[in-house]
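Progress against Task 2.4 (sequence-to-structure conversion) is shown through the following example record, which the project officer requested during the mid-term review.
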Amino acid sequence: MNTKSTFIFEQSTDCSNKKNVTLRKDFTAIKRQIYPTVIRDVGSGMSGIFGCFITFGIITISPLMIDKLGIPLTFSMYAVIVFVGSIILYFIMPETNNITLQQIEDKIMNEAHTNLINCELKMKEFS
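Structure tokens generated for the chain above:
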């Protein structure tokens, strides 16, 4: 798969009128490839919205945390959150080494189909 990388330069001004220039990678093309074809549009849209909410929360809370806790404790808390999240992801994410995207999609779709059948069977038991 030959995916062209896109980098975006962003320029912003913070509260003290200092100019900030950042270089960030645009993951929108990569993000779309993660989801199976049937839910690709909705999945990438929902993950984009979720990312915006998380970014809004961090941007909103960070100045308050820095004022109350100080810079070292604030970033230490962020480091702990990232560390714990990495450990959780290590155990949740499936192994994808030497597996094609099609094999991954087939596995996810088979699991989703099995879960749907199990859910339907449970609903029939209760009715």
